[in-house]
Each structure stands twice: as C-alpha cells, then as structure tokens.
C-alpha cells in the first residue's frame, strides 16, 4: 500500500536517521535503524530539504531552480516512499 503525501505536507527527518555521504560507495546515504538507503543526487537533495519547515510543494519549487523537469507530484511520491521506509515523518 502506497502512502499518499499532499503537497502541503511538511516532511522532517525522523529521529535516529542520519544523512551522510559515504566515501566508499561515493554516494549519499540515509542510515536508519532498519538499514541503509543509497540515494541518487536528486533524492539526496529532497531528503536534505526535509527540515520540518518546508512543505513538499516548497521543496519542489526549490529543486525546480536547480534541476530541469521537477514535478511536485514526483517529489510527493519520493517523500511518500521515504515515509514508508520510516526515514521521514510528515505533518499535515
């Protein structure tokens, strides 16, 4: 079952989750109690902006300035997958 995340939802990194750059993998990773997620550059940018202040829509606007073709629904989908993996929580 896929969790739906609204564009006005405000994501934040869960307690106990760490975002870092892994020199060995040469990739951004999210470390959490259940495991490790290796992120591509765009996903790492989304997770970095999950600060508990910006909404999903706000994150999409910020990323649209940096990357071509950013769609708010794609950001919402990525955040939803991070919620399912217990990497982020959302308010709203």
UniProtKB/TrEMBL annotation:
The pathway this protein participates in, as annotated, is:
Cofactor biosynthesis; pyrroloquinoline quinone biosynthesis
Q: Which domain of life is it from?
A: Bacteria
Residues annotated as coiled-coil are: none
Q: Which UniProt keywords apply?
A: PQQ biosynthesis
The answer to whether the entry has keyword rRNA-binding is: no
How this chain assembles, per its entry, is: Monomer. Interacts with PqqE.
The protein's name: Pyrroloquinoline quinone biosynthesis peptide chaperone PqqD
Q: Supply the gene name.
A: pqqD
């Amino acid at each position: 079952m896929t969790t739906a995340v609204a564009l006005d939802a405000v994501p934040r990194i869960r307690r106990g989750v760490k975002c870092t750059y892994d020199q060995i993998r040469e990739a951004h990773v999210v470390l959490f109690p259940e495991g490790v997620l290796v992120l591509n550059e765009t996903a790492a940018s989304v997770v970095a902006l999950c600060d508990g202040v910006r909404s999903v829509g706000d994150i999409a606007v910020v990323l649209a300035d940096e990357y071509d073709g950013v769609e708010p629904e794609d950001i919402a989908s990525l955040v939803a997958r991070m919620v399912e993996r217990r990497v982020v929580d959302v308010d709203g």
